[in-house]
Amino acid sequence: MSKVIVTVAVTGSQPTREMNPNLPVTPQEIADSAIECFNEGASIVHVHVRDPKTGRASMALEHYQEVMERVRAKVPMIINLTTGPGGRLAVDADAQPLPGSPHLMSAQERVAHVLQLRPEMCTLDLGSMTTRLGIMANAQPVVERMAELMNEAGVKPEVELFELGAFKLVRSMIDRGLLDARCHLQLCMGTSGGIPADPRTAQLMIDSVPSTCTWSIFGVARTQFPMVAMGVMNGGHVRVGMEDNIYLRKGQLTSGNAELVRNAVQIIRNMGAEVASVEEARQMLGLAAH
């Protein structure tokens, strides 16, 4: 087995402190959690930010910037900023936007923080779907323009796939030069409205990855660690973190992201594989030395 890159998604946009009081919310808490996870073996931190006062999802540039500066001051971790916000819409039964619902944003708006801060990586969600909270909308023209902007900025996209049909667009974008043939794919299993996180469907997703691409996998909630095993067994990489799961095991809330990373690393090593260092991760993903 090749070495396994561990990504940690530390906060996301949906979990709350009411669900788990250990959830990082402020930029300092998010950065501190990332640093703790680096010390446990994570090479990549996937970053969402929150409003420090309300705990709600935010797209404020200053919060992203603070997280990046705090992380980079302490560890050489690969920083991967989200571009998912701006592609979601919460509606009621009459298809009317709920009060406070985020509105759909343009490609330029969704990557504005990426263009200014230039992280090494950022996410690029492919496909639209119905979710528990409304609609995740990623129209093809918007996605393609976002990819163009990422390419111009020199930021490597982590292409997030939530169902099998998205692989058609991956191949089309590779053929047209919008994605590099060696792009990195994230297989998102068990999300609300997305493909189920079970071994059979996970194997279908894995088998659909173009041979030139690198890939990682994650599972939501109780499927987080089984999907770690699926990733390791199939020669891929893995993601864990409180964005996707707030429990260590059934009935036991995790004490934080570091505990989830520690458990994933133990699974990787118990399966006979090794965890990639940050330098090894950069090499495997084709990122410039940092």
Write the layout of secondary structure elements.
Elements: E1 6-9, H1 27-40, E2 44-47, E3 49-50, E4 57-58, H2 61-74, E5 78-81, E6 88-89, H3 107-110, H4 112-117, E7 121-126, E8 129-131, E9 134-136, H5 140-153, E10 156-161, H6 166-175, E11 184-189, H7 199-207, E12 214-219, H8 224-233, E13 237-240, E14 247-249, E15 252-253, H9 257-270, H10 278-285
Features:
290 residues; alpha/beta; TIM Barrel; eight-stranded parallel barrel; three-stranded antiparallel sheet; 10 helices
Write a brief structural summary.
It is built from ten helices and 15 strands. It is of the alpha/beta class. Strands 1-2-5-7-10-11-12-13 form an eight-stranded parallel barrel, surrounded by eight helices. A three-stranded antiparallel beta sheet has the order 6-9-8, with no helix packed on it. Strands 3-4 form a two-stranded antiparallel sheet.
